[in-house]
Amino acid sequence: MSERTVVHLVRHGEVYNPEKVLYGRLPGYHLSERGQAMARVVAGFLAANDVTHVVASSLTRAKETAAPIAAAHDVSVMTDDRVIEAANAFEGQQVALSTFLAPRNLPLLRDVRRPSWGEPYADIAARMGAAVTAARAAARGHEAIIVSHQLPIWIARLSAEGRRLWHDPRSRVCTLASVTSFAFAGDQLTSITYAEPAAALLSDATASVGA
């Protein structure tokens, strides 16, 4: 029997963002009080798992989400910017239809398949795939956690499932504080499962302003 290794891709919790801007990779965006509660719920959800390796992007919201998870397993949080939020030309602008359709921004919408407004989906898939491979190697025979962001996690899943990378953002199955788990037998991916342990905290949360 091949060794079983699981890599869990965890999306960060809700961010304090009263201005409702697309914060992307901007510094200084912390978890809200509800986001901190989400992080604790995810830590509890994974507490009984055999986690030996925890990584997060360098963005504050990812590190803050990873902290209670790592503490529950007495491991340190490693930084891996292969799992950072996708680059986006709309970063720092208010999230509203009028923003996206403003004349100055229309040229950014010319190609939804690449996409023309940000980091190519193929590049995101490549870096996330490399990060999952590294985490699997570090936790071989055990479980690893990667705390990342909605778009990178969704692209990693689409790529692993052999699906088309370009998509309607509304179709993403990756809520705040969700857990997308890649299970491997040796180096072979055997299953992908999805859970929303913080679902009870999602009803009126800010779902994806910056992801």
From TrEMBL:
It comes from the Bacteria. It holds the Pfam family His_Phos_1. One of its GO terms (molecular function) is phosphatase activity. GO terms for cellular component: cytoplasm. PANTHER family: BROAD-SPECIFICITY PHOSPHATASE YOR283W-RELATED (PTHR48100), PHOSPHOGLYCERATE MUTASE (PTHR48100:SF51). This is Putative phosphoglycerate mutase. The lineage of its organism: Bacteria, Bacillati, Actinomycetota, Actinomycetes, Micrococcales.
